[in-house]
């Protein structure tokens, strides 16, 4: 399908990856994984031809058609949404445009008629007349309501634009499909539909994702972007993770052996470098040290933060009580109606539901940021809350350093203690002086998690905390929350994350909120949703 030979991509002095050779074949789905900044998106750009490699070649088999999820969300301006999707099949789109130009000519000639007939034949061969209905169906399945299909691209928000561009990539079923973070801004229901779509796909897929459940459901192979190369593994995420854990242990053992041997040789050289009788042996040992140093294993680009959510003071048994809660936006959707529940110490309650159903609004009601139309919310007197907001741009507007920003959330103003904590969150050295108003999405998330850790509250309220995190950071966060001794309310679209942490799930649906005792996969199994 597509082959890569001796591929190297380098920016500045250090290569992202070098001398990569692999082949992606039809019928397989390749999950491209790696730390943020390891080169995953760059590799996809090289495959599409948007970026030239430093060295090496990329060759798509003749006659094969490629489709990809573009990250340019502002490039379609006043184009109708359905037309944006239809442009995903470039040949059909151009045929339609050419025919429209000819049909609209005032001086239509016999030659024009022959040209239209030629174009029409090719259009029919490509099943052109079904393209619009297929595109509309895919848009709807991805959660873009039919009422929006004729709207302009620049009239919808960023979350909807991601779905439109995903529909553009997949609707025409290209032979090779490249998807860069396709689950971003998708809810669990839409992700489930996409999983099934890709599982049934007959072409070749290469997908970048940090969603472990998604990788397990769709991938037949894993491509690991690390150690300045891209290595292939047969199997899904779980198979890769088990194999890589063993390989990592072997690499660590081998590195320890090399380090110990180098230390022994250095000790010998230090002892006998001035001894004339043994100077030749010392020189020989220096050469051995140079040889062993060349065998040092290339370090991994993966670095996970070290998180720990402590509790200064435990709460009482009754954390929160919600009674008869109702709320609707003026001229907008009903978020909840006569909803009641009790939150007890140690509960880990996930809130799930489709995008726009009101998950964040429910959290804001619980936090008294929104006033209910009816009902009451009562928090226990010993409850200390920490809130991780999904919409957090307002917290990072000032041009202050990370260190100064984080100091606002702690009574302990010991600079060394704060630096140490930021170091555990991968902000080391001069990075703590970086202005918060220029941080990336992942850096903001790490700042917010640092804020939450410093507060040492007994109740955490987290709205999509895994957004912008790579796999290592998501796993580190999951482990820290599993060890947390307090109570938790959180929103997430990451199925594996929800299942690992939640002891109960609030499932928000159009007809109300269901309080399910157990994890989310059990709920879906009970409702026969998978």
Description:
The chain is α/β, with parallel strands linked by helices. Among the domains are: 241-293; 318-526, P-loop containing nucleotide triphosphate hydrolases (Rossmann fold). The protein is 39% helix and 22% strand. It has helices spanning 40-48, 81-86, 90-103, 110-125, 131-141, 158-170, 188-199, 212-218, 237-272, 279-293, 359-366, 402-407, 415-424, 441-455, 471-483, 495-501, 520-526; strands spanning 2-11, 14-24, 29-33, 55-60, 66-68, 176-180, 204-208, 221-226, 229-234, 318-328, 334-344, 348-352, 374-379, 385-388, 459-463, 487-491, 504-509, 512-517. The strands form 4 sheets. It has a 6-stranded mixed β-sheet with strand order 5-6-7-3-8-9, with helices on both faces. It has a 6-stranded mixed β-sheet with strand order 14-15-16-12-17-18, with helices on both faces. A 3-stranded antiparallel β-sheet has the order 2-1-4, with helices on one face. α3 packs antiparallel against α4 and α9 (237-272) packs antiparallel against α10. The longest helix has 36 residues, at 237-272. The two termini are 31 Å apart. The model has no long low-confidence stretch (mean pLDDT 89).
Summary of the model, kept short:
The chain is an alpha/beta fold and 530 residues long.
Distance between the termini: 31 Å
CATH topology of the domain at 318-526: Rossmann fold
Sheet with the most strands: spatial strand order: 5-6-7-3-8-9
Instruction: Quickly name the level 1 CATH class of the domain at 318-526.
Output: Alpha Beta
CATH superfamily of the domain at 318-526: P-loop containing nucleotide triphosphate hydrolases
Report the biggest beta sheet as strand number plus sense, adding barrel if it closes: 6 strands, mixed
Shape: flat
Helical percent range?
Answer: 25-40%
Number of strands: 18
The overall pLDDT, averaged over residues, is: 89
Report the radius of gyration as a whole number of Å.
Answer: 28 Å
CATH architecture of the domain at 318-526: 3-Layer(aba) Sandwich
Low-confidence stretches: none
Q: If helices are DSSP runs of H or I spanning 4 or more residues, what is the number of helices? A: 17
Q: Output the structural class.
A: alpha/beta
Percent of residues in beta strands: 15-25%
